[in-house]
Design brief:
The complex is a heterodimer of chains A (about 280) and B (about 270). Chain A is an all-alpha fold and about 280 residues long. Helix content of chain A is about 70%, strand content about 5%. Chain A has a two-stranded antiparallel sheet. The longest helix of chain B is centred in the N-terminal third of the chain and has 32 residues. The model of chain B has no long low-confidence stretch (mean pLDDT about 85).
Chain lengths: ~280, ~270
């Protein structure tokens, strides 16, 4: 097709201008000392050396992995359970599906505000559900590292399980009923039917959901910005939030750029591995 | 027995999905005194005061307007360019399709922070900070990969014979695309537009950087930076959150079939 290149040109220009060029520019910047105090000066790999010895940065990477792996694992399980529950319904499936889409459609910032309020130390729903009227027992969940981390994971699981559920549901609808019937006649119970018939058939769909969820979870920012700002003591900080802090509020453009390049590299490596695994199962073609 | 279990499972699903939203809705309808009650009361006393303050006193309607404008313009621009790019991609012969789509998919996974610094300086250089175009341009760059990805998936499923027949009947390339292909592809384009709109409406990272002037804030920024001097005004914040969700609830109720088909394209083939 002769018109192919001109047709792709506008999109290509935008992608180069707003994605490719900025990434390259960030990579170059990471080789400079650059802040309002020091001015701009080439420094080789200094910023990366500093990053390797920055305990705060390493803790941030660690929590990002803990966050991403645990929340995605929970979302996959919750999503499949939700999909299984709705797939049985015939009457009123429309409204039910709308209910399930809602958490996905809610802006992450709004979800974060909702969960921040649920975990509130004074008026929070969680305190009320756990301790009832004993106001003196109410806890500041977001002020302790362990519970604050769990709170952020909970908010993400709430918001993203619905995405997994929708994709799993679409997969479930393509499972032929005769197959389930055959398995039932052969005497397979519900659990065996799920693991030996349903799961293998919806696996390709689930792998795609997994790919998108993992990539999203590693880029978490909004939840942390709204719920904790990294508190207490940076224990809930995540990679993108750390990079944002260095680059913008702290104006360490060079160091911030180095942090961003590492974040980019980690996510790129993960996505290559995942796209290859998932892609081999027919994502692209 | 089986019916009971299904009922319980469904109740759990509904509670899980709606519970947090209902809690915010309840808080938004409480009078200031009731919001401060400890232990918190589950049911509101149906006072609309929080909405009045959030919408009139705190300029939240202006934020809604900003979001509408930015998300709307982003959607139009993105879908237009993505459709142009996706058509040849969907019709391309084997060899280049995979790599190009792979690149597009990879581009949709860029962490925002890795491009934020350069984009910010670029926008500053063009004098676009705190302007609507200043957000529409980077958003279009960010949303394009996803839109191209979805549209290529949709277009690939439309039969090639359609255009071949048109060409045989003597249509030129533009007539073929506009008179024959476009009408068939319109639902797919509309579906993509819905998803791009929702993503643009919800985007926070770049909105936080670009819109520092309170008058220019989009909805997520307005909510994240909700003014409260020493304590968070939970009643008003809840009211703002409910208002922010309303357009999305409407879209989900009216367009859920399209949203689902948009999300699942690529995940399930044909």
């Amino acid at each position: 097709m002769r018109a192919a290149l001109p047709m792709m040109l506008p999109a290509a220009v935008f992608l180069c201008g707003f994605l490719l060029f900025p990434v390259v520019s960030t990579m170059i910047n990471s080789l400079y000392h650059d802040s309002p105090l020091t001015g701009r000066e080439f420094c080789g790999l200094d910023n990366y050396r500093r990053l390797a010895g920055d305990d705060q940065a390493l803790e941030t990477v660690e929590f990002t992995f803990v966050f991403a792996l645990s929340s995605v694992a929970l979302e996959m399980v919750a999503g499949v359970l939700i999909a299984l529950a709705i797939s049985r319904v015939v009457l009123g499936r429309g409204p039910l599906r709308a209910v399930v889409i809602l958490p996905w459609a809610v802006p992450t910032v709004v979800a974060a505000v909702m969960w921040k309020y649920i975990f509130n130390d004074q008026y929070g729903l969680l305190n009320y559900l756990v301790y009832g009227d004993s106001v003196a027992m109410y806890r500041a969940w977001l002020a302790r590292p362990a519970t604050a981390r769990l709170a952020i994971i909970a908010a993400d699981v709430w918001k993203a399980s619905s995405f997994v559920a929708l994709i799993a549901l679409a997969g479930l609808q393509s499972v032929p009923q005769q197959l389930m019937e055959a398995a039932r006649i052969d005497g397979a119970g519900p659990v065996r039917r799920f693991f030996h018939v349903t799961l293998p058939l919806i696996r390709p769909a689930l792998l795609v959901a997994l790919l998108f969820r993992v990539m999203d979870a590693f880029r978490v920012f909004d939840l942390v910005f709204v719920m904790t700002q990294g508190a207490p003591a940076g224990q809930t900080s995540v990679m993108q939030y750390f990079g944002y802090l260095k680059m913008f509020p702290e104006q360490q453009y060079g160091y911030g750029a180095a942090v961003s390049v590492v974040v980019f590299a980690i996510i790129a490596a993960l996505s290559i591995v995942l796209v290859r695994t998932v892609g081999r199962r027919g994502l692209v073609e | 027995m089986r019916l009971l279990w299904t009922g319980l499972a469904l109740a759990a699903v509904v509670l899980f999905c709606l519970g947090p939203v209902l809690w915010i809705l309840s808080t938004s309808l409480k009078s200031p005194g009731l919001v401060d009650d400890r232990p918190p009361s589950l049911l509101p006393d149906l006072d609309a005061g929080s909405y009045r303050v959030a919408l009139e006193g705190r300029g939240f309607l202006r934020s809604m307007g900003n979001s509408l404008l930015v998300a709307g313009a982003t959607t139009v621009l993105t879908v237009l360019m993505a459709s142009l790019a996706a058509y040849p991609l969907a019709r391309m012969a084997g060899r280049w399709r995979g790599p190009v789509l792979g690149l597009v998919l990879a581009a949709s996974m860029f962490p925002q922070v890795s491009i934020a610094g350069a984009v910010y300086r670029m926008l500053m250089g063009m004098g676009l900070l705190n302007t609507h175009p200043g957000l529409v341009l980077p958003y279009t760059g960010l949303m394009l990969p996803l839109a191209i990805w979805m549209l290529t998936g949709f277009f690939g499923r439309l039969p090639r014979e359609l255009e071949e027949a048109a060409v045989v009947d003597g249509c030129g390339p533009w007539t073929t695309v506009w008179r024959v292909f476009a009408p068939v592809a319109a639902p797919a384009v509309f579906t993509t537009a819905i998803l791009v709109f929702i993503y643009a409406w919800n985007e926070f990272f770049f909105a936080l950087l670009v819109m520092t002037d309170p008058a220019m804030q989009t909805v997520p920024v307005a909510i994240a930076k909700f003014p409260g001097q020493y304590r968070v005004p939970w009643g008003e914040l809840s009211a703002a959150a409910v208002v922010a969700i309303l357009p999305l609830v409407a879209m989900v109720l009216l367009l859920q079939r399209r949203i689902v088909s948009g999300l699942t394209t690529g995940a399930t083939k044909g």
